[in-house]
Design brief:
mainly alpha; 2 helices
Length: 66
């Protein structure tokens, strides 16, 4: 193998490694750009969880009847 072949092989390897680095860097930046610190934003309503208690509805007619 002569010197020119060695240089060509090194240049090919450098080019391949630079493409791999660019892919990894772009992927790394994209995944971190999407996320923000803190709680995730709510999509609908006030974001508060509501609970349903059937006893609240059962007590209303009893109070009205008395």
């Amino acid at each position: 193998m002569n010197t020119n072949d060695i240089i060509l092989a090194i240049d090919t390897e450098i080019s391949r490694l630079q493409r791999a680095k660019a892919l990894l860097t772009d992927t790394f930046n994209l995944t971190h750009a999407k996320r923000k610190p803190g709680r995730p934003a709510t999509t609908s309503g006030s974001g508060k969880a509501t609970s349903f208690n059937p006893a609240d509805f059962d007590a209303s007619p009893k109070l009205a009847a008395e």
